[in-house]
Write a structure and sequence with these properties.
Keywords: Cell membrane, Membrane, Transmembrane, Transmembrane helix
Main location: membrane
Number of strands: 2
Oligomer: single chain
Family: Belongs to the UPF0410 family.
Pfam families: Transgly_assoc
Largest sheet: 2 strands, antiparallel
Subcellular location: Cell membrane
Radius of gyration: 12 Å
Order of helices and strands: HHEEH
Structural class: mainly alpha
């Protein structure tokens, strides 16, 4: 049950990060989950483990990390199209 909870929280974090930036995450729901997981790792690595924890994710650094990840991905994908 913990793994399913982590998938749900990761998907929500990825979707929130995409909505903050006004960008769609490539890959739909799976992309949101991956962005949530990778963003959580990135945010926790950069900012440490602090704030409320839900489903194994520290929400504040995970959300900031997911926003950074989606910003970088959208910048790279936009520059590849040109």
């Amino acid at each position: 049950m913990g793994f399913i909870w982590s998938l749900i929280v990761g998907g929500i974090l990825g979707a929130l990060a995409g909505s903050f930036l006004g960008k769609d995450v490539p890959g739909g729901i799976i992309g949101n989950i991956v962005a949530g997981f990778v963003g959580s790792w990135l945010g926790t690595t950069l900012f440490g483990a602090w704030g409320p924890e839900i489903g194994g994710f520290y929400i504040v650094p995970a959300l900031v990390g997911a926003v950074i990840l989606i910003f970088i991905l959208s910048f790279l994908l936009r520059s590849m199209k040109k």
